Amino acid sequence: MDSTAAARAARRRRFAEAAREERPDLALLCLLIAAEADPALDEAGIDAAQIELDRLAGLLPYAPAARPDTAPAVWARNLAELLGTRCGFGGSAADYRRLESSLLHDVLRRRRGLPILLSVVWTEVARRAGAPVYGVALPGHFVVGFGDPYGRHVLADPFAGGRLLTDEDAALLVANATGTAAGPGLTERMLTPAGPLETVQRILNNIRAWAQVRPEQSAVQLWAVELSLLLPSHPAQLRHEHAQLLVQRGEFTAGAAELEEYARVVAEVDPAAASAVRRQAAAARAMLN
What is residue 32's predicted lDDT score, i.e. its pLDDT? Predict the structure, then answer.
């Protein structure tokens, strides 16, 4: 194994171990994802990004001793003033076209990114400062919540510089992001705090989607799938996607073996699908001849 492959293997072991911690470090997991895209992001670079989050947290004014019903809004406004106004963190439509918008170290450097990565910055800075903060995985658009998700809370949209949202604003945001008609409002399930692993999986899904429409970026799609498979819980369908990618990239033996393993997993619940996958495996092996 050459040094590059050894470094990648060590990084992935660290990612798998970090994902299985009792309290996964969201920033570290995001930075390990970034290191897959940017091998120059070494241990010193990862430390520097964590230090930058610490520095930003040190600039955040502590929320004054306000009533419980007003403190969440104070925290949200302070974050918006610091990160959105003073530091210029935000996003635009153009950021959806850049892989860097999904890489935490680049988002910290450029101060531009996708809603979910900007929300990671918001939550990590606020958490370090002691704020009652959590990510909110709304359909089509990730935002940040302050306070009690099931009681008095405030939502903020880091993509819009930290604009405060009413629940009605958030419902309209979901409707616009998903292309659906605005419904009666947000459900309790939508407002459930997103845990670190759910957030990481959604980031990897975004990277896979970015690469999937760019055939020349199949290597990016491959590592995003392989990192997803290292998470403690993941959709079984990812095994099939992984196998198909290996075959598309000319790794026929490995792809066929993965297809056969996936067929074994789904055989009990969907024998017809398993048979179709086995035929795909046979076709992949035939390409070796």
Answer: 98
Please say whether the dihedral angle defined by the alpha carbons of residues 37, 38, 43 and 48, taken in this order, is positive or negative. Answer: negative
Query: With bands split at pLDDT 50, 70 and 90, how would you rate the model's confidence at 4?
Result: confident
Which of 37, 58, 76, 29 has its CA nearest to residue 221? 37
- Say if CB 75 and CB 131 are below 8 A apart: yes
What span, in angstroms and rounded, lies between the C-alpha atoms of 146 and 148?
A: 7
Measured between alpha carbons, how far is residue 212 from residues 138, 205, 257, 272, 280 in Å? Answer: 23, 10, 22, 26, 20
Task: Tell me which residue of 274, 239, 285 sits closest to 258, measured CA to CA.
Answer: 239
Helix/strand/coil for 90: strand
Q: What share of the chain is helix, strand, coil (3-state, %, to 5)?
A: 65, 10, 30
CA distance 189 to 46: 33
> 250-259: per-residue pLDDT in tens?
999 999 999 9
Helix axes 218-230, 26-37, angle to 10 degrees: 150
pLDDT digits (tens, 9 = 90+) for 249-287: 999 999 999 999 999 988 988 889 999 999 999 999 898
Residue 98 has pLDDT above 60, yes or no: yes
Q: Which amino acid is at 88?
A: G
Residue 86, C-beta contacts closer than 8 angstroms, at least 6 positions apart: 59
Q: Could you give the 3-state DSSP secondary structure of residue 234?
A: coil
For residue 209, count other CB atoms closer than 10 A to its CB: 13
Size of the chain, expressed as the number of residues it contains: 289
269: exposed, middle or buried (Cβ count in 10 Å: 0-12, 13-18, 19+): exposed
Q: Virtual CA dihedral for 24, 25, 26, 31, nearest 10 degrees?
A: -130
